[in-house]
Amino acid sequence: SPDSVIDMYAKIMGPGISNETLALTRAGTNFQLFINDYRLTRGFGLYTSIRSNRIWYDPGYILWDREQYNDNEVTLNGHYTTLPLDISWHFKLLDSNRLQWRVFVQATDHFHIDRLQVNIMLNPGFRKWLTDQGDEGDFPEKFHWEISEDWEHLHITGPESTISVLVDDPGW
Fold this sequence. Notes:
Layout: H1 2-12, E1 16-18, E2 22-27, E3 30-35, E4 38-39, E5 41-52, E6 55-57, E7 62-69, E8 73-80, E9 85-95, E10 98-107, E11 115-122, E12 126-131, E13 136-138, E14 163-167
Antiparallel strand pairs: 1-2, 2-3, 3-4, 5-6, 5-11, 7-8, 8-9, 9-10, 12-13, 12-14
């Protein structure tokens, strides 16, 4: 089917890491996540966004200077082409169903950051999210966004947080 062709293309598109269950593949300026060959993410997949002076900057503005792939870890170091900002993404497969993603940013000059977001665009079928702080909630039927702001916020958390998701009838 077209969907399975798209999934397989996204999986083999670029370098990545995998274990017996999970696979993380670089797809251009973002990453896609798979479990047992089923693509969990869609669209931009896993990516970061920075808003400075009411303008959003996505990974298309990042020039990756260095990439390092090991058996179960990926580290990318780069800088924004239009902002005085260095960025580092570090992914690690912790076990067969857990991925750790750490994002580090460092300003190389003074400028204003309105917001830094770490985003994961999931395929439909996810019903609930949970955090290590005991917060939880249901995913809405459909996300919406407003031109004046951004995507609907389900939860805003601080650094070093763990967020998990539950799936209804995953089909994998």
